[in-house]
Design a protein that fits this description.
single chain; alpha+beta; Ubiquitin-like (UB roll); 2 domains; 7 helices; binds FE2/S2 (inorganic) cluster
Amino acid sequence: MRLNCNINGSQYSLVVNSDKPLSVILREQVLAFAENSQCQGAQCGNCLVLINGSAALSCLIPAFKLNGASILTFEGFQKTRFCHDIERAYADIGNQPCPQCYPSKTIIIESILNKIDKENQSRISGFRIGSGGHPELSQNQQNDSSANEQAARSRSGTGSISSELIAQEMAMSSCQCIELSDLEKIINLAYKYRSRRRARRS
Ligand code: FES
């Protein structure tokens, strides 16, 4: 099959077997993929990548599921400013994943931040359309509400972050080098940095 997808910001058009796992495609075709695999699949978590913003084990994703996907390996993600938010949070909390799982845990944290973002965005747009029988807000009121919500999120960090979500996503990486409570602090802080950066730009 022909696979058209974006990998680390570059467009690829590859001829591959439709069942070939993404981890193998990346290893064979993309230089920027230093996966440090320790297993035969679904055990170590070292092959994690971002697919359309969500963490996924690349050893389990076949090519036929990837047409049109946007894929980021850790090497590609490291070059983005989003990675810097997480690195800053590691430094400020004074803890970070061990070298073995640093790439995969960082990818998972980014995936969690994206999920929180989506949740917050849908909460804001649900409020805007006046769902649930409430009268619709005027454009000015909508802008005020949105700005207030944005400001509140910037002040309080993620707001909607749940320990269950973190535990669920972190289960993709088998390494237990860092406490869940520290990961929660890191995610909160990284989200705060990201929100501040966005607020400065808007
Ligand atoms: S290679 Fe170990 S989980 Fe994918």
